[in-house]
Design goal:
This protein has 125 residues and is an alpha/beta fold. Helix content is 40%, strand content 18%. The protein has five helices and five strands. It has a five-stranded parallel beta sheet, with helices on both faces. Helix 4 (87-90) links the parallel strand 4 and strand 5. The radius of gyration is 13 Å and the shape is globular.
Length: 125
Amino acid sequence: MSNPKSLVAIVDDDQRVLESLEELLESAGHTVRAFSSARTLLNSNALSEIDCLITDIGMPRMDGFELQHVMSERRPDLPVILITGRHEIAELPQAKHNWFFRKPFDGQTLLAAIGDALTKKENSP
C-alpha cells in the first residue's frame, strides 16, 4: 500500500471513466484530482502537487502522448500511466511501456501499478 497522502491526477474526456477511477483510487486511500482535458490539468495549480498521473491517450486537442511529453519536460520525475479504449493505439510503439492499460482493465492491477510507480518515485534520487 502506498502513502495514503499521495495525489493522483486523472485526465480523461469520458466523465464515467473519471468517476469510476476516482472512486477506485479514493477507496484505496489516494487523494484524487480529476480533469476532463489535458489543458485543464496544465492550467491548474495542481501540477507541482501531483505524485502520479493517469491519462487517457485518445482525447481531443491534446492526447495522452502529448501530455506525457509535456509532463516529462515540466516534471521529469512524475510517473505517468497511460490508458486507452482504442485497440489500434495499444499497438503503437510509444504505448509499449510498463504503465500502459487497455480499457477495460482490472482495477487491482491498476492500483498495483500506481503503488509501483509511487514507490519508484519515492526511491529515485
